[in-house]
Structures are given as C-alpha cells and as structure tokens.
Automatic annotation (TrEMBL):
Source organism, top-level taxon: Eukaryota
Biased composition, class Polar residues, residue ranges: 1-14
Cofactor: NADP(+)
Domain annotation NAD(P)-binding: ranges: 28-362
Family label: Belongs to the NAD(P)-dependent epimerase/dehydratase family. GDP-mannose 4,6-dehydratase subfamily.
Name of the molecule in the record: GDP-mannose 4,6-dehydratase
Amino acid sequence: MATQNDTPKSSSGTKGEAPPPQYSKVALIIGIAGQVGSYLSEFLLDKGYEVHGMSLRSSNFNTQRVDHIYIYPGNKAHSARMKLRCSILTDSSLCLRRCIDAISPDEIYNLADQYEAAVSFETPEYPADAVATVAVRLLEAVRSHVCVTGRRHIRYFQSGSSEVFGPKSLKPEYWDKHIEDWARPPLSETSRFQPWSPYGVSKLAVHFYTRHYREAHGLFACNGLLFNPESPRQDWNFVIRKITRAVGRIKMGLQSKLFIGNLDASRDWGFAGDYVEAMWMMLQQEKPDDYVVATGESHTVDEIMKAAFKYVGLEWVDYVVYDYSIPLRPAGVDQLRGDAAKAKEVLGWNPKVGFKKLVEMMLDEDIKLAKREKVLVDNGYIDVSNSPVLGPFERGDMKRTLEALMLPS
C-alpha cells in the first residue's frame, strides 16, 4: 500500500509535460515516522536528496512527526521530493524487494524499531518480529536487488542500540555496582555485548545480521550503536519526555505532582538531530564499518528532573513524589555511557547539543503544548481532572483538535 504515487523516479513525464526533476541521490528511510526518521528526512532533504519514507504500521499510519514537511504548504520544495509508503510487519523480503526495485535508492536507512526495552519484558516475541525479522527481510531484499540489478553502490545503515550492552560489558574490575559512574570507562565498538532485555537481544541479532550481510555478501552495510536519542519529538512514554511533559503541565497549572520511579538510572542522552548526521556520514565513507554514536556523558533521571524544574523556576521538592509502585525492569542496567571516539576520528562527527540544552529544548516544546491544552481547559472543551498526569491528547490529536475548534495554538 502506498500513500503517494509509486512511480519510480526514472519515469518520464507525459506528452507535453517536462520530465520530473532528478535529484543528486535517492534515500529510503524505513521508520520515517519516528523521531529519528523525521530528523533524518529533514537532514537529507536539505542536502537535495529525494526521500522515500516507509512506516511499518500495525493499525494506523501515523505521520505526525513529518506532517510539517509533507503536508503543510510552506514546505513545497521539500514535499515535492518526499514520498511516503507504508508496510506491515508480515511483508516478505520479496515485497520489500519490489519496493526497492521501484525506488532504486542509493542509500537505505533502517530505523524500524520497537524502542521500549522495558515493555519488551511483557511481550518478548514482539521485538523479535518488529526488530530482528524486519531487519533480516530488508537485508535480504537489498542483497537480492543488488544481485539482479548490479547496483553495488547501494549503501545500508542499520540503527542499533546501547541496549546491546550490560553491566558486565566492561572489564571485571568495573562490575561492582557501587563504583561511581564517572569512574567507569565508556562503552565502545569493542566492548563486550551483554543485552539484558528481549529488546536488547533483538537489537544484537540485527547487529550481527548486518555484519553477516556485509562480510558474506559484500553489502556496504553499517551499524550505528545509538545511545538514547532524544528530542522534542520523542514519545511521551520515555522518561525524559515524561518528565518534561509533566513539568510543562505543572508550570501551566494543569498538573500538581510528578510521580516518578527509579531516579538513579543513568544514560548517555543525546539529541536525535545530531545523531542523524553521524548516520549519514557513515554511508559516505570508502569502507563500511560499525560506530558508536553518543555524547560521552551520562546523566541520571534525578539530574534530568532537577534540571527541568530549575529551567521553569520551580522547586522540584514541592512537586515530585517517588512512586514505589512503578515497576522496575526484571533485569536492569544502572549505567550506560558511550565512547564515540571512533566516530569523531574517522567521520569527523561531534554532537552539538549538550545535556542542558536538550532538556531545555524538550521543555520549550512541552510548555508550548501545555499552553495549547490550557486553551481547551479554559474554554471548557476538556476536564483537566480526567487527565492528572499526561493529559488526554497525543501531540498530533491536540493540534488537529485546536485547528478544528479554530482556537489559537
């Protein structure tokens, strides 16, 4: 199924019409509707690419993160070079191959993901399907396409995760959980893999599938081990966004408390918009390889929470309630920090947005959303008592509701 014309880019125009413009490169993004996919599409469009996006859907085709490119009239130059398609998890490698044949991409970015490591404990079979099976089908489709067409210049990026690492990925002398985070060395491409969640296991399988197709079939295929990409486009069910969303609503008087669980978990949080540049750089090299993409700094959930309240001028102690009922992972990892030295040296990549700026960017967005929600509350369209934590609207639904009601956004 396609949401736009499936005509390959090489098709000529009808009689009396100029042929469609040809762009420098063509990219196919699997998982374009996610936060990373939306930033990558913007990045590639700015570089003059023709971008084809595919979203692996289950029940609905959600494009809210790319609507500002694809639908709104202010982006005519970009929307003319962007085409969206959708697929389902059960699509075979043959179906994916037909899609690749039609598009003839120069670069393929597989960002299809399940993302939530914690949820994977409840449905461990889902990441196996949504992550590992999708990836191997796509790799096989690329291999088949190359064999039939001879287009050996095609390049493939596989989105990886820091969840492939665990507490014993470091040397034994660092296994003691009481060692301070700053005293532990960061994790690199040569660190031992030790996933502690079904999601992490699936991502590790994908990592080795990608290496297999690179080494056995000669594909130009790269793994990017991404450490916690975050942004104002992140889903609300991830911890930073949960915090910034709640703080924004508290600031606007829509919420009174932030209920939170484990404050000690420490991660290397980076800006998704910075990470997409590293992904693109990997595919511009002479040889394919695997890279860690990270900031090199780790911060706890407690630090995030305090930074967020400080930014809006509120005392966190007045609003935060530690909720012991929030379940922890059956197997948790206290701290993960990445070493992107290889990416910096080989690719020339460096992150631009630091931790403090990232939290502030996300808060600015969530304060804006809270102001919009307050318009609905003040005009009697919703009852705030029915949404004590996150509010009743997903981000796209709120925007569409405001437009329908002709209320200012």
